[in-house]
Amino acid sequence: MVGGKIFYSEDTIVANATPLMPSAVSVVRISGKDALSIGKKLFRKEGIKPRRVYFGKIYDRNGNTIDEVLFIYFKAPNSFTGEDVVEIHTHGSVPVVKKVIDEAVNYGARIAEPGEFTKRAFLNGKIDLTQAEAIAQLIGAKTEKASKVAVNILEGRLSERINALRDTLLELISLIEAEINFPEDVEEIEPSIIEEKLREVINHIEKLLSSYRRGQILTEGIKLAIVGRPNVGKSSLFNALIGYERAIVSEYKGTTRDFIEETIAIKGIPVRLLDTAGLRETEDYIEKIGIQKARERIEEADVVLFVFDAHEGWTNEDKKLYEEIEYKQPIVVGNKIDLGLDKNHRNYYFKDIIYVSSKTKQGIDLLEEKLFEKLNLTEDQDSEVYINLRHYKALEKSKEILENSIRNLNTLINQKEILMLDLQEAEKHLEEILGIITTEDVLGNIFSNFCIGK
Ligand SMILES: Nc1nc2c(ncn2[C@@H]2O[C@H](COP(=O)(O)OP(=O)(O)OP(=O)(O)O)[C@@H](O)[C@H]2O)c(=O)[nH]1
Ligand SMILES: [Mg+2]
Question: Computed from CA positions of residues 113, 14, 126, 174, in that sequence, does the dihedral angle turn out positive or negative?
Fold first, then answer.
């Protein structure tokens, strides 16, 4: 909390904390300095103590019962927002919730803006900005893994790492400052030590920067295209991966024309899987269009699975196609191993073939492993954190300044004031991430992405 004091906004806000739809229970939340007095007017009970659950009724302004509810009061600063908060648990009836909000407004509350509760929690120092963002991330998480990482950040894992970087810089800044202020009493710092410290910070920044892409994969997923010549078993592999017979499979070449898409989770990552038409020269008009579409999908794909028939062997046609899409660095999949491997398979010029059978599902797990490895994801994400674009930009700026300082260290070592200012600026960019310094713009951007009531 800033200076240990509760930051009270001018007004008291109200909103439904649960979606407006029929359900077992709905929660209406009121936060602000008048939360309790407004709550009491609705609940009509005296002697409400904090953090106790009361059962009773909510009345409208004319004394008519709106609903039977549970009523909880959280006294500042021990609440989510850090302000006085009242939670009213009604039956999950849309008209009831609307009516309760309407009556709270009648007694002086204002309808909350999106993210306003969380914003108040931030302004009261209950959470820093990375944690506020993590709340939105957690609410929006589509997979268990994405939610796990959001919880890591909510628990302060990202803040810890940013603070560690800040500490290193602040320590260095204070050493330089001491040297500037007391040149007689303080020993000069070796430039090599300064450089070492700066490199250490840059290293850690780079690690965080590289987590950005992984975070995107985790939250937004990837596009995975299955590609190869006709009849090698692309649609069969597609079906094996999604777990049911979605795509038509047949012994005729050119079975798949239009591409087929299905979203699945592979080890917790959302994957948009695309089955495409077998690539070949053809006179068939429809097939031609399909092949054109397949090529577009290859272009867009994050990862390409290049399938060939490992029983038949690596043909010239495979080679030609492979060379065409080599720039995508595809994962090469040899299918149909249940029929036995081609006798020349040891001579293929790749080291890295994943052999599978779409029919028996042999090797499919290895393929998933390989995909994971390719995306640079690890299985163990218990303490993993991912940065967002806002963090990315701030870290880049900080890194740029530090790199510049290293480059010019020979000169700066004799201009310590300038060096100090640079390091201070680099540190300020780290503060931005945590929200120690912010602008209304930045806050507006972040909190407007929240849903109402959070
Ligand atoms: N034994 C065996 N047969 C397979 C396997 N995978 C596919 N097949 C057979 O190979 C033939 C072609 O399979 P598809 O999955 O339709 O091949 P495709 O690559 O999608 O073909 P197009 O859509 O024409 O490009 C079918 O007869 C499948 O039953 C496998 O792992 N083992
Ligand atoms: Mg097919």
Answer: positive
Q: Which ligand has the minimum distance to the alpha carbon of residue 250? A: 1
Position in ligand 1 atom list of the atom nearest CA 249: 16
Across 412-421, average pLDDT: 93
Using alpha carbons, select from 74, 93, 90 the residue that is nearest to residue 82. 74
> 249 CB under 6 A from ligand 1?
yes
* Contacts (Cβ under 8 Å, ≥6 apart) of 171: 197
pLDDT at 333 > cutoff 90 = yes
Q: Residue 187's pLDDT is what? A: 84
* Structure token pair of residue 309: 């028939």
Domains for the chain: give ranges and CATH numbers.
Answer: 2-127 (3.30.1360.120), 144-216+388-435 (1.20.120.430), 221-374 (3.40.50.300)
Task: Work out the average pLDDT over 209-235.
Answer: 91
Percent residues over pLDDT 70 in the chain: 96
State how far the Cα of 90 lies from the Cα of 101, in Å rounded to an integer: 11
8 Å CB contact between 258 and 292: no
Residues in a beta bridge with 224:
273, 303
Q: Which of 252, 284, 358, 362 to mutate to test the pocket of ligand 1 (most atoms within 8 A of CB)?
A: 358
CA-wise closest residue to 234 among 217, 211, 255: 255
Distance in Å from the first CA to the final CA of the chain: 20
Residue in 28, 109, 106 with CA at minimum distance from that of residue 62: 106
Is the CB of 99 inside a 6 Å radius of any atom of ligand 1? no
**How many whole angstroms separate alpha carbon 66 and alpha carbon 93?**
11
- d(CA 430, CA 437) in angstroms, rounded, equals 9
Answer whether 0.85 is exceeded by the pTM: no
| Residue 385 Cβ contacting ligand 1 at under 6 Å | no
To which residue do tokens 């007095």 refer? 37
Whether residue 329 has its Cβ less than 6 Å from ligand 1: no
- CA gap 307, 317 in Å, rounded: 12
Tokens for 180? 């500037």
Pair of tokens at residue 409: 């260290």
User: What pLDDT, on a 0 to 100 scale, did the predictor assign at position 3?
Assistant: 40
Return d(Cα 389, Cα 385) in angstroms, integer: 13
Taking CA atoms only, the protein residue closest to ligand 1 atom 32 is 336
Q: Which residues of 263-296 are buried (b: 16+ CB within 10 A; e: fewer)?
A: eeebebbbbbbbbbbbbeebeeeebeebbebbee
Q: Which of 249, 312, 321, 354 to mutate to test the pocket of ligand 1 (most atoms within 8 A of CB)?
A: 249
What is the C-alpha to C-alpha distance for residues 157 and 41, in angstroms, rounded to an integer? Answer: 42
Least confident of 68-77, 133-142, 223-232, 400-409: 133-142
Widest CA span in the chain: 88
